[in-house]
Amino acid sequence: MAVLDQVPFLKRMLEMAYTIALVVLISGIVGLVLAFPVKLLWNFVFGSVYSINVFQAWALNVLAGILFGQKSSNR
Question: Where are the domains of the chain?
């Protein structure tokens, strides 16, 4: 990694890429953990008609966040 010591911009970009990858990974794990209560509640309420798996519950969380997310304004 002697090249990174000679090119500080490249070193900074690599550190930023590691940070972004870590944030994406942690966000995905947290999203999956939060999808379990949605899955359990959905299957409790609608289980006799249609049950969902954890990835469908995750997608439902994302969709609900898009549709009902908090709107902020700087007024």
Answer: 31-61
